[in-house]
Amino acid sequence: MTTTEPIAAPTWGARVRRIALPVVLSVFVVVGSFGAANGQTDRRAPDWFMVVLLLIGTVSLYWLRTHPVPVLWATVVSTLVYMLMEYPWGPVIFSFVIAAFSVIRLGHRLQGWIGIATLYVGHVGGRMILGINEQGVYQVLLVGTCFVVLGFTAELFRAQRDRAAAAAKTRREAELRKAGEERLRIAQELHDVVAHHISLINVQASTALHLVDRQPEQAGPALAAIKDASKEALVELRSIVGILRQSDESAPRQPVAGLERLDHLVSRTSRAGLEVHTIVHGDPHPLPTGLDRAAFRIIQESLTNIVRHAKANAATVRIQYGDQALVLQVDDDGQSLTGPPKEGNGIIGMRERATALGGTLTATRTPTGSLRITAHFPL
User: Fold this and answer.
1) Neighbours of 195 (CB within 10 A)
2) Cβ neighbour number for residue 372 with a 10 Å cutoff
3) Are 292 and 352 in contact (CB under 8 A)?
4) Are 120 and 150 in contact (CB under 8 A)?
5) Claim: this prediction has a pTM higher than 0.70
6) Which of 2, 244, 345, 357 has its CA 20 to 30 A from that of 351?
């Protein structure tokens, strides 16, 4: 497949380099050809047309970056005419070599090889047609070998260039994918933090409004719970926003949230009127940071859903530490319903957390008809 490099607006330095190649090569080729003519008395004497042919090849290299294929054919024609007119052998071939090499390296492979073949066949065939036969078989094969080497050398550089471009594209795609995963993770964190605390505040506010007129002395604990929940929500939101502002890659990039905070979560949820029981099986042990955070957030989101939707009085959180897996299960004693539970953003987000770590999450009905969340994480 033909590929081309993107052409940006040339800088001052690029313009100088672009002009320098044709100028330097023109001087070198013209002077070198006149110098080579001194020892080739059997060849045509240099004249103004020889200089024109030489300059066609060298000056056309100025447009090599923007119009590589036309430049290649300009060097093919000028070099072929130069050879068939039997001007002195010399550096005339340099323009064609640079053009053919660049065309293949830039990805115009077919045009490059056709150009090489045209010059070689035109040179050999033209000399036969014109009766110029001083070259033997050895010279013909040697010239052909040199042209083939030129083409394959350009192919090697082109392959290296394509590999570098593919590697750069892969790195960019990986960076974009990583950035997308990071945005998704932060969005999940925001959803879990905001939904949980706002749900608790909503429940406590409803309780306070209900008690403020009838039993004002009992509204105090509900207002205190609102204060605590809002304060903690602000702390966690600052932590998440701080992640977005971090520029030092060595700094921590994850908010601190793990199963070590489970007791605090249970206590805070209990103050909202939901009695939470925690049952731990196996020997608790440190978990990888990502798994620890995901387990905490899944339990938090499960309790949030119970507070908001289940009309439950109690919930049970079971954590089973195994040698090969960590299993979480959250049940409630809420509504007795039948059929599969409806999956909103909360359950979808929890499942995405589990899947990202190679685990699974299911939302099913218990025998009593209430909701059961089960998450299974391989260790």
Assistant:
1) 19
2) 18
3) no
4) no
5) no
6) 244
Pairing between β-strand 325-332 and β-strand 314-321 as defined by DSSP bridges: antiparallel
In single-letter form, the type of residue at position 153 comes to T
- Residue 11's alpha-carbon distances to 8, 15, 63, 76, 240, in angstroms, are 9, 6, 16, 30, 43
Greatest C-alpha distance within the chain: 122
Q: How far is CA 93 from the centre of its chain?
A: 43
Q: What does the alpha-carbon distance between residue 353 and residue 300 come to, in Å, rounded to a whole number?
A: 13
Helices (H), 85-108: 93-105
Q: Is 100 helix (H, G, I), strand (E, B) or coil?
A: helix
Q: Which two tokens stand for residue 132?
A: 């110029």
Radius of gyration of the chain (CA): 39
User: Residue 332 — left, alpha, or beta (φ > 0 → left; ψ -120 to 50 → alpha)?
Assistant: beta
* Residue that has been written with the tokens 């309780």 in this structure: 207
End-to-end CA gap in the chain: 45
Q: Where are the alpha helices (DSSP H) in the chain?
A: 12-37, 48-59, 68-84, 93-105, 109-130, 137-214, 219-245, 262-271, 289-305, 345-356
Sheet containing 325-332: give its strands across.
275-281, 314-321, 325-332, 371-378, 360-365
Distance CA 373, CA 330 (A): 5
Mind listing the pLDDT tens digit for each residue in 212-265? 667 666 666 666 666 666 766 666 666 666 655 554 444 444 445 788 888 888
Q: Which of the 8 DSSP states describes residue 216?
A: G
Q: Look up residue 36 and give its two tokens.
A: 């080579």
CB atoms within 10 A of CB 203: 21
366: nearest Cα among 334, 321, 318? 334
**Backbone region of residue 375 per phi and psi (left: phi > 0; alpha: psi in -120 to 50; beta: other values):** beta
Distance CA 310, CA 374 (A): 17
Instruction: List, for residues 271-306, the tens digit of each pLDDT value.
Output: 767 888 899 998 888 888 888 888 888 898 888 888
